[in-house]
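User: Predict the complex with NAP.
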Amino acid sequence: MQYLSAGANPQISRIGLGTWQFGSREWGYGQPYAEREARAIVRRALELGVTLFDTAEIYGLGRSERILGQALGEDRERVFLATKLFPLLPVAPVVEQRAVASANRLGVRRLDLYQVHQPNPVIRDGTIMRGMRALQRVGLVGEVGVSNYSLARWQAAEQALGQRVLTNQVSYSLVSRSPERDLLPFAESTGHVVIAYSPLAQGLLSGRYDRAHRPANRVRALSSLFLPENLERSGELIATLREVAGAHSVTPAQIALAWVIRRPAVVAIPGASSVEQLESNVAAASIELTDGEYQALSAAAGRFRPVSGPAALLGRIRARFTLA
Ligand SMILES: NC(=O)c1ccc[n+]([C@@H]2O[C@H](COP(=O)([O-])OP(=O)(O)OC[C@H]3O[C@@H](n4cnc5c(N)ncnc54)[C@H](OP(=O)(O)O)[C@@H]3O)[C@@H](O)[C@H]2O)c1
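Assistant: Here is the predicted structure with NAP placed in the model:
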């Protein structure tokens, strides 16, 4: 495993584990997954050197935090544990109360990284950061992070906190590249970190899905990326992933992850539906893409033009009636 230091203790693994899937009905993995597989995934991740574990109070309405905390057990204290506050009425006392509730569900005395899940469109960050500052003062929170923030808002949050807001967790993958515009250059030049969520585009980049084999769960049924037309349009990108994967004797999903973490300030938090997927994702940390491969993948990604907007909405309605 490779690690980013970023002054954090313990160091942050370049491949972490996302746990939205744990206990969340919308992923549709069922009770055996929540009760057994999720624990096995976490235990194997620990064995393989993963330190970054990401959850949120909203995932499964607290179930993800509980499952993760129980699975980590005594090892809770030696990982870099990240959770998120859903910023509904985020005044300081509420922020403090919700951090305590998350820590209790996780079974820890300290949240290594406490992130604001998304910008509140009405309430500015000064209010939230007052709560975060108090939490840091009493030692319940280590680092503060944000998620789905623009660069301007990330910087404003940092100014409001009065010290670094270490991370911004955003969608970053071969099919979601807007962080390259300003978030990555900022992080790379200042020692901040971008946490890439959905680095596999929720499984699209594994190449397992196509027009005839669409994933049947709520998360992906609602995503325009999985529309039959978009699955078809992703064909060239998937073919390029397969070609590079063949040269390294690995899978397209592993190449998609290697591409994401090639940028130095990025760590990725893929979710996993099985222990095998987790093992494969961790192994991606040691794949070295050549410059030529990196550019070929970026170029193929640049040519992928998914339908979006009203056309995608129409497609989703149509797909809803054809999905098994
Ligand atoms: N901050 C935010 O707003 C936000 C939003 C979304 C996610 N997140 C975080 O980011 C994490 C990851 O994002 P995500 O779950 O949306 O998407 P993702 O990591 O891109 O995709 C995860 C899915 O891809 C498939 N997969 C994983 N590893 C694979 C492998 N090696 N080979 C083939 N398929 C594989 C699995 O689905 P199947 O096996 O069913 O195909 C898995 O559930 C979440 O768990 C969550 O912690 C944060």
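The CA atoms of residues 200 and 256 lie 6 Å apart.
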